[in-house]
């Protein structure tokens, strides 16, 4: 297998890494070594690689910016794919639609919109993920979500077919879409509205301030650990955690942020087990105290 891929890797623009540590590809800085880590730079090499893993029936995961992932140290033979730099292009159509490659960071899309005096994507400046991750998660904040601005997404399936899915044909829910897990998002188009640059900048600054006040910055975290259990209570998940769990609890270096009790932090060298234990502990405490079953927002790969 490795020999076959070694030969493949000699003829591509992208990179294939073997026994590659994933830690630095996640915000939580946790994760083991992937037997194979593939960074495609062209559609052809992505298609060729997919046909190879389909033939061998390997499991695979796509990583974006890794800001919503908790990856185990024992990931077995799972293959990881991360879109390369050729998938991070931005362009503007004459109708003011923004086309973004799915590996680009949300913040860059928001900046590009602002530079072109286009409004609607300001909330993306506050989400530290990539466009691909944002679509998968229907990410959002301050009253806006990807579903409000996404027009369509171009995807590749496991058979290497590339096609476009219109936003109206996707079922979006709170931090969830119904797009099949084995689709790779390649690029996306977003709608915008013309607005003065100064107004857009003001709004972005306001959102950033709000975010800075309420959430920890410059720490190793996966953002919101659990979803707000909207159907079961009016309370936010951080309130439920605050009233059910001693904030000082820790498992190794896995801790609860002092600033936001739904943000869990790797204060130094937390392992997957540490973080997973903290997650399970908090879940149980909230269930015991309030009767509410929390659902993870963070995605676990193990
Ligand atoms: C400090 C901090 C603050 C955060 N604030 C918010 C917030 O305000 N609102 C919010 O909604 N989230 C927030 N998050 C969570 C996270 O940033 C979002 O979920 C983000 O959209 C994930 O994008 P990503 O590129 O990091 O995806 P990853 O974490 O790498 O992956 C998440 C999912 O997307 C899939 N995926 C990624 N790229 C592709 C692709 N090209 N094709 C197909 N699937 C793909 C992955 O397979 C995985 O299932 C925060 C996280 C942190 C660390």
Overall description:
With 302 residues, the protein is of the alpha+beta class. It folds into three domains: 2-85, Uridine Diphospho-n-acetylenolpyruvylglucosamine Reductase, domain 2; 88-212, Uridine Diphospho-n-acetylenolpyruvylglucosamine Reductase, domain 3, CATH 3.30.465.10; 216-301, UDP-N-acetylenolpyruvoylglucosamine reductase, C-terminal domain (Uridine Diphospho-n-acetylenolpyruvylglucosamine Reductase, domain 1), CATH 3.90.78.10. 29% of the residues lie in helices and 25% in strands. It has helices spanning 2-10, 43-56, 106-115, 131-137, 146-149, 197-214, 237-244, 272-290; strands at residues 15-21, 33-39, 60-62, 69-71, 79-81, 90-92, 98-101, 118-119, 140-141, 144-145, 150-156, 162-166, 172-173, 176-177, 184-190, 193-194, 221-224, 250-251, 254-256, 263-266, 299-301. β19 (254-256) and β20 (263-266) form a beta hairpin. α7 (237-244) packs across α8 (272-290). The protein is globular, with a radius of gyration of 20 Å. It starts with a helix and ends with a strand. Bound molecules: flavin-adenine dinucleotide (FAD). Residues 27, 61-69, 83, 102, 126-130, 132-134, 136-137, 139-141, 184-185, 221-223, 299 line the site of flavin-adenine dinucleotide.
């Amino acid at each position: 297998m490795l020999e076959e891929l070694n030969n493949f890797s000699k003829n591509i623009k992208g990179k294939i890494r073997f026994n590659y540590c994933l830690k630095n590809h996640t915000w939580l800085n946790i994760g083991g070594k992937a037997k194979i880590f593939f960074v495609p730079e062209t559609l052809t090499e992505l298609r060729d690689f997919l046909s190879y893993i389909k033939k061998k029936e390997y499991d695979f995961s796509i990583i974006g910016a890794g800001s919503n992932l908790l990856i185990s140290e024992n990931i077995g033979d799972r293959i990881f794919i991360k879109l390369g730099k050729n998938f991070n292009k931005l362009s503007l159509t004459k109708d003011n639609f923004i086309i973004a490659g799915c590996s680009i960071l949300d913040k860059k899309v928001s900046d590009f919109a602002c530079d072109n005096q286009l409004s609607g994507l300001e909330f993306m400046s506050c989400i530290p993920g990539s466009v691909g991750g944002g679509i998968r998660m229907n990410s959002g904040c301050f009253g806006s979500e990807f579903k409000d601005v996404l027009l369509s997404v171009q995807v590749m399936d496991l058979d290497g077919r590339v096609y476009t899915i219109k936003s109206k044909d996707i079922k979006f829910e709170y931090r969830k879409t119904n797009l099949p897990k084995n689709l790779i998002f390649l690029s996306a188009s977003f709608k915008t509205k013309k607005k003065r640059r100064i107004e857009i900048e003001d709004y972005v600054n306001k959102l950033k301030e709000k975010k800075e006040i309420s959430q920890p910055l410059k720490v190793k975290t996966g953002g919101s650990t659990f979803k707000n259990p909207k159907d079961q209570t009016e309370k936010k998940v951080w309130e439920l955690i605050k009233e059910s769990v001693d904030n000082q609890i820790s498992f190794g270096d896995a801790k609860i942020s002092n600033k936001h009790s739904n943000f869990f932090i790797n204060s130094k060298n937390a392992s997957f087990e540490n973080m997973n234990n903290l997650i399970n502990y908090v879940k149980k405490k909230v269930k015991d105290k309030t009767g509410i079953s929390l659902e993870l927002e963070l995605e676990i790969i193990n």
